[in-house]
Amino acid sequence: MKIATYNVNGIRSRLPNLLEWLEREAPDIACLQELKAVDEGFPIGAINDAGYGALWAGQASWNGVAILAKGVDPVESRRGLPGDAKDTQSRYLEAMAHGILVGCLYLPNGNPWPGPKFEYKLAWFERFLRHAQRLLDSGQPVVLAGDYNVVPTDEDIYDPTHWRRDALLQPESRDAYARLLAQGWVDALRKRHPDERIYTFWDYFRQHWPRDRGLRIDHVLLAPPLAGRLKDANVDRWVRDQPKASDHAPTWVELSASAPKRTVAKKAPAKKAAPKKAPAKKAASRRSRTEA
């Protein structure tokens, strides 16, 4: 089971890249962000032709999220993050596909910092934390995948020096992400590669992609029922090298069909006691029966 997240940065302009990626990598479930298209502009025909069912929540020019499932139609369970009826930005979509509950999110960027956009980011994050806890408490196999717009640590960026005033690196942003993990979610990419510099985003400025000056802001978090099934996790960097590419590359996890069985040490068999010898018969017994 392969589950991926990919900020396409405009689904209409990146559609050829998206379709090539789906054909080549064939994820079972794909979460998309930054569709930048209204619902009517979502290319469902091309997605279906590629072998995927889809749910999406569009928005003109900004935001927008979608969940694609190979060979099936995802079953929607939630549209929009709960907790603020006034928030109409298309940033969260939740559905069941292939036996897994998937939350696809596009967390607010928060720039410029400080300011109202950063305050909105933190408020959105708090609502997300409350919802994530409820999902965790349900005991279901849940994946929360998307563009979190948070660089968790200085090890997740090529050089934090020039980004200290960016909303992605602020202590409040990092603290919210750390509290999310403290609930029990597993950061799959970091779990699989604990000591490596791995990036998922390279902006378009100053030749950051050719120089591999990236950031890790796209994350796939696993609930405990799925964490034990983690086989692999990585980034499809080749997608970022395509013509007219998004500034993000797809990030994915691979899960085993079921959790590996725990091996229990077998106890050594108890030694059998040596059989007792039957007492010797009296010599006269047979003779006495004969003479009777």
UniProtKB/TrEMBL annotation:
Signal peptide: none annotated. The record marks H248 as: Interaction with DNA substrate. It holds the Pfam family Exo_endo_phos. InterPro entries: AP_endonuc_1 (IPR004808), Endo/exonu/phosph_ase_sf (IPR036691), Endo/exonuclease/phosphatase (IPR005135), ExoIII-like (IPR037493). Residues 263-292 have a biased composition (Basic residues). Keywords: Hydrolase, Magnesium, Manganese, Metal-binding. The active site is at Y106, D147, H248. Its EC number is 3.1.11.2. Mg(2+) binds at N7, E34, D147, N149, D247, H248. The record marks N149 as: Transition state stabilizer. GO terms for molecular function: double-stranded DNA 3'-5' DNA exonuclease activity; metal ion binding. Residues 4-248 form the Endonuclease/exonuclease/phosphatase domain. Probably binds two magnesium or manganese ions per subunit. Its cofactor is Mg(2+); Mn(2+). Residues 242-292 are annotated as: Disordered. PROSITE patterns: AP_NUCLEASE_F1_4. It is an enzyme of class 3 (hydrolase). The record marks D218 as: Important for catalytic activity. One of its GO terms (biological process) is DNA repair. Belongs to the DNA repair enzymes AP/ExoA family. This is Exodeoxyribonuclease III.
